[in-house]
# Entry
Amino acid sequence: MDDVEAVVLVGGKGTRLRPLTLSAPKPMLPTAGVPFLAHLLSRIRAAGVRRVVLGTSYLASTFEEHFGDGESLGLELTYVVEEAPLGTGGGIANVAQHLTSENVMVFNGDVLCGTDLGAVVNTHRHTDADVTLHLVRVQDPRAYGCVPTDDDGRVLAFLEKTEDPPTDQINAGCYVFKRSILEEIPRGRVVSVERETFPGLLERGARVSGHVDNAYWRDMGTPGDLVHGSADLVRGVAPSAALPGPVGESIVLEGADVAKDAFVFGGTAVGRDVVVGEGAKVEGSMLFDGAVIAAGAIVESSVVGAGARIEAGAHVRDAVIGDRAVVGAHCEIKGGMRIWPDVQLPPHGIRFSADV
Ligand code: GTP
# Structure
């Protein structure tokens, strides 16, 4: 697919992942040991695409600081900044002048997916589509954009988050556009492809195709999805060529110090210079650089931010602990709680809901 360019939208503020996204944009959060975007870029490269344009906005400079010109990934990366976020459609329109290929793949920068990207492009070509959407079948489509198709694979409608979806096919956040169609998206204002561009194309009778499959798929937009997606990458359930180590129960980066009798498993990612003390148990979690899990602490399905400390005997489950925050000894933190950066919780507290 040397003749196809890619656009990755990475300009969103990632509000659902706060406080993690206060210091890094969502696609740059360490996921299975590397920025999430590295996994997506590795799949794009593996599919044979070479030129990738990143549509940035929120904390824009962090992308180029990390990935540079893309050479180390075998890619040519171009960065195009939106001064104010223009939405998914506005973001695509904003990079249009940097594209030259006849067909362009467009990706939401926060989707972890195992689909065969070449097959999506083949569907686009075989059906001579103006736009082709990757659609994935999910068990519960209610929380997503539901996209019914006819027997010829023609998209019939876009139904945003409906209680009574007519199909289990949802918009997977990966599209192939004819460049001529992409160039028609209005520039310089906020546009949503899902709510404006795609419905508009259907209305005027454009050929919009759906490429449906059952590939691994996860939108990494919420803490729960981020944690489970990271664990799936570590365990090799979700494919990536960018893992910084072999797949297994855990990935442990350089400089980390994990006590011999600590139990680190379930797809846990252990960042640089992390310390896991004696008898601690860490399951299916993300420990960012410099985090400390003291002796006997238990951490399950949680994100522990950079430099944060979980003191001895504390129990953290389904939680987000902000950078440098401290969870005091024997505290219990459960039920989707988020602890803001630098907050210090005294020992023996029990918290189940409200954020701190
Ligand atoms: P939330 O605030 O938690 O909804 O996250 P988000 O801002 O990332 O929004 P959403 O998950 O809907 O975005 C899907 C993808 O599109 C992500 O990869 C975003 O980075 C990207 N995106 C969203 N809005 C914009 C935008 O205005 N401009 C650009 N370039 N990308 C965007």
Remarks:
- The radius of gyration is 21 Å.
